[in-house]
Write a structure and sequence with these properties.
This is ATP-binding cassette domain-containing protein. It comes from Hassallia byssoidea VB512170. One of its GO terms (molecular function) is ATP binding. The longest helix has 16 residues. It is built from nine helices and ten strands. The N and C termini lie far apart (about 40 Å). About 40% of the residues are buried. By secondary structure, it is α/β, with parallel strands linked by helices. A hairpin with a 2-residue loop joins strand 1 and strand 2. The strands form two sheets. A six-stranded mixed beta sheet has the order 6-7-8-3-9-10, sandwiched between helices. Strands 2-1-4-5 form a four-stranded antiparallel beta sheet, with helices on one face. The structure holds adenosine-5'-triphosphate.
Length: about 260
């Protein structure tokens, strides 16, 4: 097994009386694709937000490349960049695709605008959307908007290579897409993983079986605040674990409480 890149140790998080994460341990290893699955409302998005440093846990520790993170991402830089691709593409409707993808560079860097445009176009090429920089999000399909949000997650300041995301967090990237559009996104996720030096590790939350099978190497199953099962994709297919069997079959009968 490769070196741990991100480690959560004993992480708990409640919203009021709702204990969403209960003493969770989780590791993302260098170069791995980790799938996070589980029933709706079970804390998958919350765990991604904790990993990204956007939500503070109530208890527990987070290590990024062995360095303990204090506070949220805004309180101090992690040793490696972490990019998040949100469930909704979360683009600014009033900005063009180019302005969306280059948003952080335009706002916070001193890079000349022409250079930012080049960097944005490189990333748009990478996600297969050359030449759409002047369009607005409302003019794109759902799948295209997701691809634009991928480009935005991986664009970074070449003067600050440490900010380039070494790990990407995908929250339901194929939700709401037809099977073919889903395949395009799944292929893209794998391609981005294999692009030299970019995003070699990722965690992906998904409900879609095809996405689990095609984008994850290892899977964890989250339920009632805890990691209830983990294993490889092959093991996921074969396991007799009652939670996994019920989840994959979609049955309403079994140990998963149907609320
Ligand atoms: N900011 C918040 N304030 C209050 N409750 C929250 C907040 N964020 C999440 N929750 C609650 O925490 C629980 C877990 O939410 P989360 O979005 O992490 O689940 P999920 O597994 O990603 O769900 P889904 O599969 O439906 O997207 C839910 O009951 C949700 O209502």
């Amino acid at each position: 097994m490769n070196e741990p890149l991100i480690e959560l140790k004993g992480v708990s998080k409640s919203f009021g009386d709702n204990k969403v994460l209960d003493n969770v341990d989780l590791t993302i290893y260098q170069g791995e694709a980790l799938g996070i699955i589980g029933p709706s409302g079970t804390g998958k998005s919350t765990i991604l937000r904790v990993i990204a440093g956007l939500t503070a846990p109530d208890a527990g520790e987070i290590y990024v490349q062995g360095v303990r993170r204090e506070g949220l991402i805004e309180d101090g830089a992690d040793p490696v960049g972490i990019g998040m691709v949100f469930q909704q593409a979360a683009l600014f409707d009033s900005l063009t695709v180019e302005q969306n993808v280059g948003f952080l560079l335009y706002q916070y860097s001193k890079i000349p605008r022409s250079r930012i445009r080049e960097l944005v176009n490189e990333k748009l090429d990478m996600v297969g959307l050359s030449g759409i920089g002047s369009r607005y999000p409302s003019e794109l399909s759902g799948g295209m908007r997701k691809r634009v949000s991928f480009a935005r997650a991986v664009v970074s300041n070449p003067d600050k290579p440490q900010d380039a995301p070494a790990v990407l967090l995908y929250d339901e990237p194929t939700a709401g897409l037809d099977p073919i559009a889903s395949t395009v996104i799944e292929d893209l996720i794998r391609q981005l993983q294999c692009t030299q030096g970019v995003c070699a590790s990722y965690a992906i939350v998904t409900h879609q079986e095809s996405t689990i099978r095609r984008t994850a190497d290892r899977v964890i199953f989250l339920y009632q605040g805890k990691v209830q099962w983990q294993g490889s994709i092959d093991e996921l297919e074969k396991t007799e674990h009652p939670l996994i069997k019920q989840f994959l079959s979609g049955s309403v009968h079994g140990p998963i409480h149907v609320g």
